[in-house]
Design brief:
Elements: E1 2-6, H1 11-22, E2 27-32, H2 38-43, E3 47-50, H3 57-63, E4 69-72, H4 82-103, E5 107-111, H5 118-123, H6 129-143, E6 148-154, E7 156-158, E8 165-169, E9 176-178, H7 179-190, E10 198-204, E11 207-208, H8 209-214
Parallel strand pairs: 1-2, 1-4, 2-3, 4-5, 5-6, 6-10, 7-9
Antiparallel strand pairs: 8-10, 8-11
Helix pairs in contact: 1-7, 3-4, 4-6
Length: 216
C-alpha cells in the first residue's frame, strides 16, 4: 500500500514516514511544503511531492495520483492565527478529502483533535475554540463522503519517546500520548481494514499498539 502523508514534515509525519518505510507492507510518499524539507525523506527512500495546502485541489490531487491511501496529519500549529487555522486545519483538510475523491483514493486516515464534538467547541477556551471548530467540520465533511475513512483523536501530544503501548476506544479518559506512538497507531490502522468507518480517541496506556488497534 502506497500512502501519501499530508503534513509529512510535522513531528507525527516524520515518525510515520520512518515507520512506513520500515514496514514490509507500506510505502510512503511525503507531501511537503518546500523542497528544502525533502532530504529527510529522501534519506529514508521515500518519494516526495512539494505542495502547499493553500494551493488548489488539483495540486493536491496530482500528489495523490498512484497512491492507495492518504493520511492527513497537517496542522497550522499553536502559534498561528485563526486565519491559518481555517486555511489549513479546515480548508486544507477538506481540499485533501476532495483531492482523494478526484484521484480515486478510497482510504483516508484523519488525525483530528481529542474531542471535536459540538459540546467541545462550546466548552473550549476562546483561543482554542476556532481550532476545535475547524477539526469538527473537517471530520464531519469526511464522514459525509463514501471514502474508507478512519478518524483518530489523540490526547495531549508530547515529544516523549513512545512506549508502544496505548489505550484506544470510542471514548477514553483525557490524557497524554507521545507523537511517536500516534504514528505507530496510524501505521497499524492502515494495515487493519476493520478500522474503516471508525473514529476513536487515543492516549498512552498499557496495551500494545497492534492489539489496541485490533480491538477497535
Amino acid at each position: 500500500m502506497k500512502v501519501l502523508i499530508v503534513g509529512a514534515n510535522g513531528q507525527i509525519g516524520k515518525h510515520l514516514v520512518s515507520f512506513i518505510q520500515d514496514s514490509d507492507n507500506l510505502e510512503a510518499k511525503a507531501m511537503i511544503r518546500n523542497q528544502e524539507q525533502a532530504s529527510f525523506f529522501v534519506d529514508l527512500g521515500a518519494e516526495t511531492a512539494v505542495v502547499n495546502l493553500e494551493q488548489d485541489i488539483d495540486a493536491i490531487a496530482k500528489a495523490a495520483e498512484g497512491v492507495d491511501a492518504i493520511v492527513f496529519t497537517a496542522g497550522s500549529g499553536p502559534h498561528t492565527g485563526k486565519d491559518k487555522t481555517i486555511m489549513v486545519d479546515l480548508d486544507g483538510a477538506v481540499k485533501t478529502i476532495e483531492a482523494a475523491k478526484a484521484a480515486g483514493v478510497k482510504r483516508f486516515v484523519m488525525i483530528s483533535s481529542f474531542d471535536t464534538t459540538r459540546e467541545a467547541i462550546q466548552e473550549a477556551p476562546s483561543s482554542f475554540a476556532p481550532y476545535v471548530a475547524a477539526k469538527h467540520y473537517a471530520d464531519e465533511w469526511l464522514k459525509g463522503t463514501d471514502l474508507d475513512y478512519t478518524i483518530i483523536h489523540p490526547g495531549l501530544l508530547t515529544n516523549d519517546d513512545g512506549k508502544g503501548q496505548v489505550e484506544a476506544a470510542e471514548k477514553v479518559e483525557r490524557g497524554e500520548v507521545p507523537r511517536e506512538d500516534v504514528a505507530r497507531v496510524i501505521a497499524a490502522t492502515l494495515e487493519n481494514d476493520a478500522t474503516i468507518g471508525k473514529e476513536f480517541q487515543l492516549v498512552t496506556g498499557t496495551t500494545p499498539v497492534k492489539d489496541a488497534v485490533d480491538s477497535l
